[in-house]
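Something for you to look into today, if you have time. What I am after is a single protein written out in full by you. I want to see for myself how the chain folds. Could you add the entry underneath, on a fresh line?
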Amino acid sequence: MNFAQKFGIFCLIVISVCYVYFSFFNKDGFDFFKFRDNHEGELNYYPEWQSEEEPKTDENSKNDDVKVIKIFVTDSKGNLRSVNRNCNTAVEKSCFEFAIEQLVSSPTKWEKSKGLSSEIPSGTKVLSVRESNNNILVDLSPAFESGGGAESTYIRVHQLIKTANANTKLPVYLYINGKQADVIGGEGIMVKQPLNERSLDD
């Protein structure tokens, strides 16, 4: 047996011993990434750390009680845009009612900073939201139909329509101060009920 053959057998034995050791006696195995990090200082990548799932916290578990609702506001060009609100189902008795209340209130400071606004008069109040298995009745205060002219009135009703339809599949009827609102504003804008995308068609 020549030297090359002996050297080859020696290398094979060394490799076999290393394999057996790292496979059966070292529970962590041979981690090439850690080896390079410890010896060369070139790599800060730990695959086993990345594969771990993020632990759940009390804050994360509360997300189960949050439902995202949509309300519609206007941008700087007068176009309708949807924005999201988080409805805490553990606090709010109805996320639909919460959506209407959020619509009636003015956009947040952050939304205003982005050029968003609303045509719904600031004095508007939600008098009641009555929900049943068949329909939903939304009763708003008279301020909803005051001021702004025909264009503003048209936009605010459209805001309400799109917000209502985005947050329920039930028919929604609009009331003003306890009376069904078939005509709104001084301009006499006709509203076909229940509220839908064809409610303002002539």
Summary: The CA atoms of residues 6 and 128 lie 94 Å apart.
